[in-house]
Specification:
heterodimer; B: alpha+beta; six-stranded antiparallel beta barrel; four-stranded mixed β-sheet
Chain lengths: ~400, ~375
């Protein structure tokens, strides 16, 4: 199987696997990090070591790392947790975000909206670019916004967003507004600099960088007040109750260290493959493929391509049966292909939104993977197009 | 693959024959959370999709779930609600076969380079003709006329030669999780069999006036008001019970008059019909146009076909029964058979208002006592 769907998840990095297997093999690694006795102290040591590694990988301090059960939980904690606390403190507690965000962000915003918080969405253009001036306008117009949340990179398009620039403009407009960025898709592909960007909250996930799934982190300034979204004990300084997923966090620490130190080399490798894929698609499908996304600012691993007149779903199934894994967009539903909400939010109609394939390369891919895809695709595109418009009866 | 035992065994037959098989399930509607539908029991519910996935995993074949919710809503559910609102009795299963199942799946089969579309229906395709399934109690050929003649060369129904008990036995032998799951008996998208509620909900969603569903008069054949009904969507032609009227002899719904929001009732003898018109007729065999021929006509699911003279005019057909029949309901399918071969079929047209024509032609009460409430209602295929 050729995996060109790394934005969905990445295979476990061999070094991460080794670290996790070693951890499991140790008979004394069963402790609860909250226990006072020796095995508890050992668990605590492993936990805090991973915390330092994650913090270092993104230019943050270890005290501001709260481990969660993944990126979605980190987003929920950042948005619902922050705005709920802001409201309790009697401060502006509305959210400003975009319609291109991951479902964890938009659904968190919707939950707040139902609870009476102001929620404002800034629009994106047809390349998925977001005008930060529009963010400034919205902040000036709505004085009750307390949090701005925009991703560092879009999961479907691969667009990169200049969060440092965003933070500067937000601070210049309303200095008391917190800024959150979902950096799940940017991690390991660009340099993340929490302190340097001056951002207040940042979501991370382990399984997009060669770590295990089911573990992530919310990076935050210490002064940001968070209402926990899980009820329980005082773990993670009360921000995320529940006994820590020590094995997963240990793996996350190793993966984060690799992502933080090696992102540059990874990026060069992925850039090369992405360019080969884009050029190859443009060569093989002159006038039949439309690239979607920002050609200038991107994270270098994602190609979002529309094949007008084709059903992306049928292209994807054909490729799967040929041993090549790609995606039609966000795969976060129950395994059924819905039109990409990102495409719809960018102003494309449903037919266009259903004609899209997302290719996302990873560190494990090689040139031959791209070439095999480019060999398989023309016959499949022809067959799907001939079968009927958008995979529907003509 | 609906997730039920039939399509699962059909898939296993193809796998055993050595074909390259790909499983597909259509996601047709969102079951409200915590409703019985979310837990399964009817075809294509979310739980059944999981079942189909599990079966495919067991059979070692790929499985994909296709999002057909929009198409199902516009082609099947909306039609269902609108039909009731104009006094017709819809047949959503045949509509689904026509608009959702066969057309789109054949396109997908072609897009995958697959030679055949295989389903678990109890029907046979032999020598280019659609025939009844071997298990008469399970035969689904009545619901399949609408798939169209072009589809016949590209579909296969491996269970056409099987009896249901053998299908279950095979499923148990294979260890399939759904071997003993009960057959679906109700419409997949209607919760708890409450059709009236479903009609109201969906018409409301369509933004159509619900005043058409208000209570109205129950009249006898002479036009006298003899009672009140609670909405024409709660009434189907042939229904006896639940009308809230008392009369010397049992009264049946003869006609629904949507424009007047009225229901006309009469004795069983007035339900008799000697003819019916078919619209949206589709041929599944070579049939002469304009010439009359003898054939069998089935106009309800689970009622035996009856001999008649049939004349086909393009997309319409006219049927003259050899002997009067009961239980003809506009909107249901009328399917023409030659023996057990389906020649074609279509939808029973609304009859012109015969209230004057039939007045005074009352026949003595003699038969039709077995007519029961909801007999003409849409049963699940």
């Amino acid at each position: 199987m050729i995996n060109l769907d790394h934005n969905a998840t990445t295979p476990l990095d061999p070094r991460v696997r080794t670290a996790m297997v070693d951890h499991l093999a140790r008979s004394d690694h069963f402790g609860n990090a909250s226990s006072v006795h020796r095995s508890g102290r050992e668990a605590r040591r492993i936990l805090e070591s991973a915390r330092r590694k994650v913090a270092a990988a993104v230019g943050a301090e270890a005290l501001g790392v709260t481990f969660t059960a993944g990126g979605s939980e980190a987003d929920t904690l950042a948005i619902v947790g922050v705005c709920t606390a802001l409201r309790a403190a009697g401060r502006p507690c509305g959210v400003l975000t975009s319609r291109l965000e991951h479902a964890a962000v938009t659904a968190s915003a919707r939950r707040l909206e139902c609870a009476g918080h102001r929620v404002v969405f800034v629009e994106a253009d047809r390349a998925g670019r977001i005008e930060f001036a529009a963010v400034v306008c919205a902040l000036e117009r709505y004085g009750d916004i307390g949090l701005v949340s925009l991703a560092s990179a879009n999961h479907e398009l691969g667009n990169a967003y200049d969060i440092q620039d965003l933070v500067g403009r937000v601070r210049a407009t309303r200095h008391e507004v917190w800024v959150h960025t979902d950096a799940v898709q940017a991690f390991g592909k660009v340099e993340l600099n929490f302190a340097g960007w001056d951002v207040d909250l940042m979501s991370l996930s382990a399984h997009k960088i060669g770590g295990p799934s089911g573990v992530g982190a919310l990076i935050h300034r210490r002064e940001v007040d968070l209402t926990p979204q899980v009820c329980g004990g005082g773990q993670e300084r009360g921000r995320r109750p529940g006994t820590e997923n020590l094995l997963g966090i240990h793996g996350f620490g190793v993966a984060a260290e690799l992502a933080g130190t090696q992102w540059h080399a990874r990026r060069a490798h992925m850039d090369l493959l992405r360019d080969r894929l884009r050029v190859g698609l443009a060569d093989r499908f002159p006038d039949q493929v439309v690239f979607v996304g920002d050609p200038e600012a991107h994270v270098g691993n994602t190609v979002c391509a529309m094949f007008p007149g084709c059903s992306g779903e049928m292209l994807m199934i054909n490729l799967d049966l040929s041993g090549i894994a790609v995606s039609t967009g966000s795969a976060c539903t129950v395994g059924r292909v819905e039109p990409s909400s990102t495409m719809l939010a960018m102003g494309y109609d449903e037919t266009a939104a259903r004609a899209v394939l997302r290719f996302s390369v990873g560190v494990g891919n090689c040139v031959e993977d791209i070439d095999r895809l480019l060999e398989a695709l023309p016959g499949i595109v022809r067959r799907v197009r001939e079968a009927g418009s958008e995979g529907r009866p003509a | 693959m609906s997730g039920g035992v039939d399509s699962s065994v059909a898939a296993s037959v193809l796998v055993e024959e050595g074909h390259e098989v790909v499983g597909m399930t259509m996601s047709l509607y969102d079951a409200p959370p915590r409703s019985p539908k979310a837990r399964g029991g009817t075809c294509c519910s979310p739980a059944e999709v999981d079942q189909a996935k599990q079966v495919c995993e067991q059979l070692g074949i790929a499985h994909y779930t296709l999002d057909e919710r929009d198409r199902f809503r516009t082609q099947v559910i909306d039609d269902f609600a609108r039909a009731y609102a104009v006094g017709r009795t819809p047949n959503p299963c045949a509509r689904c076969n026509e608009h959702v199942k066969f057309g789109p799946l054949l396109v997908r089969a072609q897009a995958l380079g697959a030679q055949l579309l295989v389903t678990g229906h109890y029907a046979r395709v032999q020598a280019g003709r659609l025939r009844r399934g071997a298990d008469a109690s399970k035969d689904q050929s009545y619901f399949l006329f609408a798939m169209g003649r072009d589809a016949l060369s590209r579909v296969r129904f491996p269970l056409g030669a099987w009896h249901k008990q053998d299908v279950r036995k095979r499923a148990r032998e294979l260890g399939l999780p759904n071997a003993d799951a009960p057959d679906s008996q109700e419409l997949c998208f209607v919760s708890g069999g409450d059709y009236a509620r479903a009609v109201e909900d969906h018409l409301g969603r369509l933004g159509e006036g619900l005043s058409r569903l208000d209570a109205g008069d129950v009249r006898d054949e002479a036009g006298r008001v003899i009672g009140k009904h609670r909405g024409i969507h709660r009434v189907t032609v042939g229904q006896r019970r639940g009308l809230g009227i008392s009369a010397a002899e049992p009264q049946y719904v003869l006609r629904v008059l949507p424009a007047e929001r009225a229901v006309v009732v009469g004795p069983a003898s007035s339900l008799r019909r000697e003819t019916l018109g078919i619209e949206g007729f589709r041929k599944l065999a070579d049939l002469p146009t304009g010439a009359t021929f003898e054939a069998l006509v089935q106009f309800r699911h689970r009622s035996p076909p009856v001999p008649a003279s049939v004349t086909v005019y393009g997309e319409a057909a006219h049927v003259v029964f050899n002997a009067p029949v009961h239980g003809v309901a506009a909107g249901q399918a009328a399917v023409i058979y030659d023996g057990d071969c389906v020649l074609g079929g279509g939808w029973i047209a609304s009859e012109v208002d015969r209230s004057h024509a039939t007045h005074g032609q009352r026949r003595p009460k003699d038969e039709g006592e077995d007519e029961d409430e909801g007999e003409a209602g849409p049963g699940a295929s």
